[in-house]
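Retro notes
What went well: the complex prediction finally ran end to end.
Inputs used:
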Amino acid sequence: MLRRLTEEKLEEILEAGIAEFGEHGLARTSMNKIAARAGISVGVLYKYYEDKESFFLACVKKSIRELDRTLSETIQKEESLLQCAERLIEALQRHCREHPSHIRMYHELTSSGAAELSPGLAQEIEGVTARLYSGIIDKARQEGRIRQDADPGLFAFFFDNLLMMLQFSCCCDYYRERFSIYCHAAPEEMEAQIRAELLKFLESAFTVDKEHIIHTNQGE
Amino acid sequence: MLRRLTEEKLEEILEAGIAEFGEHGLARTSMNKIAARAGISVGVLYKYYEDKESFFLACVKKSIRELDRTLSETIQKEESLLQCAERLIEALQRHCREHPSHIRMYHELTSSGAAELSPGLAQEIEGVTARLYSGIIDKARQEGRIRQDADPGLFAFFFDNLLMMLQFSCCCDYYRERFSIYCHAAPEEMEAQIRAELLKFLESAFTVDKEHIIHTNQGE
DNA sequence: TTAAGACGTGAATAGAAATTCACAAGACGA
DNA sequence: TCGTCTTGTGAATTTCTATTCACGTCTTAA
């Protein structure tokens, strides 16, 4: 039986690829398995994509598109840094629930399997959020809402680190295990609490009104 | 020429394995290449180790041992949370400089290539630090040095997330790229600044004396 | 209705790498 | 010095999978 591939089928194939890449990583994922999972033959994959690598890139692009949509729906309004953070965390938690394999694939792509692709991918994936977060934080600083001596780039970097690890901890085996070592529960059982505590942490980290700066270097 | 393997040679072989695993990940690393890199024949690898997986585990064990040594030398004293953090950051930055391939291998091990190993490894690797950090933070909380409503487990988790990303950002290609997107420089060019800013971030996050808790949930 | 062209199929090919094993080289006791 | 045991060697085997290609099926235009 031979069916011309529809637009939806093509999306399905990408989704199958994302799932497999997320489960096994670029190196260990078999094109034959992807085809089987998508219910097509291997050959057709090579009609649409040059090779495994470009298929992988297409999967990543699709995934980026969906994440960007989620994010841009989330951060439109004029909001305070923390309101923004709260919405972001919520959105990412939802994204983890709905597209865990996307996050897993994203994690795989940071590993050495995709070494040659790193430079381009990092730029494409992180570029948007980096500018976004740095901008938000810089604005907050200029408005005097966070400490004046904070470096916006690095603070944005720390902020994104926390969000990224949040996602990995929800979706990736190793990090799920690690989470449960810290918290004795699976992340999906305490989504609200995680969100609340992360907000507290960020709230403290970002808030400026301290009377007493802790004395780090007073020795024993 | 045939030389009986010495204790040092065995360590060298593990070090070669760590380097290869760090560069290519578990799946893409070839036992033949490891042997060549270590200057021995493949066969002998299989005399000492059951298969690739157990060799990988031996490499990880060696790496854990060295990290544990670094950490236990670092956190012995009775110190404040932030002093402790500062020492930790310094120690980890040094560790990154001296053993980048260990960090790379650690990162590879969190990816799906080592899926079956995840549970055991996570426990072994994270168990110690998790208890350590949670303990330090819990103590600080009981002494009233950080906000009372903080969950020690989650705060320790966030703390470790930041430290872990710091290491990846120094040693792993993708994360190095990502770092430079945020900060427009390579991490080794601004080690001191990173340390200082991360301390500020943590200092703020952990410090308790705030008059005004930011109003997160007041709506628009 | 039909024939050319377009597209999907999946068995076959080729290459890479894990693992094995028959053999060789040193160690050691007599 | 000799024979045996231990241990390292690396070519050969096996397995896995990316990629190809000769073929069959559908579409479509006349």
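What we learned: Chain B touches chain A through 82 residues (CB under 8 Å).
What to try next: split runs per interface for comparison.
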